[in-house]
Design a protein that fits this description.
This protein has 142 residues and is α/β, with parallel strands linked by helices. The protein has five helices and six strands, in the order ββαββαβααβα. It is globular. The protein starts with 26 loop residues before the first strand and ends in a 7-residue tail after the last helix. 19% of the residues are buried. About 6% of the residues have low confidence.
Length: 142
Amino acid sequence: MPRNTMSRLRPAERPLGRQPEARPQFRIAVHIERDVIRVCPFGDVDIDTAGRIREQLENATATGTKHVVLDLRGATFLDSTGLHIALEADAASRAQGWKFRLIGGPDHVQRVFDLTGARARLPFLTASELAVLLTAPGKPPA
């Protein structure tokens, strides 16, 4: 009787087929420009990374800054946890008196905001509006 040896092969010895894609290394960059703090996640914005993003948003507001931007241009994926981060930050900004803005990510990331109707209620900036916010003399726009 032939023995099935497939299950005993180590992963490196298994026949090639569709291999799971490697997830890009997640990181967060924080940029401070004038009185604006921009939190930029790179990689998947999901349940595994949500705590790190929330921590950076909380750190930004703890410094007393009046403008926090969540820049999703480097996001490769966004799930419902990522959506909740944006909704929570928006609600906190209104309750605590600071301004929260978002810069949208790639189309597949923005689709989450579109499907849920959240795009219409969240304060999205374009890259050019961000440039004005960062370079306008005097107070940044409300």
